[in-house]
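Subject: for your reference before the review

Hello V.,

The reviewers asked for a structural picture of the protein, and I figured it would be easier to keep everything in one thread rather than splitting it across files. Below is the amino acid sequence we used in the manuscript, unchanged from the supplementary table.
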Amino acid sequence: MITAIAYRVVKCAPLPRVVSLAFFITALTVSLLSTSTFAAAEDKPNTTPPATPATTVVDEATSRKTFAADFEAGSAAVKEKNWTLARSKFTSALKALGDYNDVDKSTAQVLLNKAERALIKDDAMYTANKLMVLKQWVEAEEAFRKVVEVSGETETLRNKVLECRKGLEGDSEELKKAAELSKASKWKEAIEAYNKASDKLGGIRIIRDGLQTANLNIEADDLTKKSDAYLKEKKWQEAFDGYKRIMQIRGETDEVKRGIAAAQAGYAEDHKGSGEKPLGPPDDKKIEDKKVEEKK
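And here is what came back from the structure prediction:
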């Protein structure tokens, strides 16, 4: 701006040439200095620190008072089985208390966990029943098992799972055939049928369980033959270990009990007067190691 004024002055007021030129140079210098100063001021970083937001400091007395009020409200909600409100109140109570100690702090945590489990159970039960109505058997079974995981197994829940499996077998000829073969103890044929079912349904739980049951029973059949042979050969320890493993698979059947008793009696007779201890529980680790080695 000063440059423009200087130009107009020089143009409008005739002066001697030397004087007008000097005046113009002076005005131009002042203009450049002013512009440089203004730009430097703009480029200079702002070193003023930003304002710090105000923090609310809650003292211990206020924290305890809030905790006590929310704990009382949460406890009342537990009595009414209002698990949503209970969870909310115990969560806010523990948050208010923070790192401070209180005689009811552990109780609040326990009741909070209970409220959360109850909500998960209610949601899973509702979902499972809804899925059953829609005949979504696989998902319904998993939802019922979630209830079992949270609250424990009951006769009602076991029956619900079985109902899901019957519904699934009703919708799948392959699964129905596999289940029938398993009931007939035709384990190898059952495995083949379950594998065919998995081609269509994938590796769902009912198929995984069916394959595992069939394979375990094949193992038990094989061990029964071997253990019976061990008895005849008077290999008491091997027979004893074999029957104990069969018992793990099929339970304490009369056949297994007779085999174990025979192995113990034969061992005791052979070691009479030797001070040897009678046959006891088998070495489970040796059995597992043997199974692993056989798989290799």
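For the response letter, the relevant points are probably these. The CA atoms of residues 151 and 206 lie 22 Å apart. Residues 230-295 form one domain.

Happy to draft the paragraph if you're swamped.

O.
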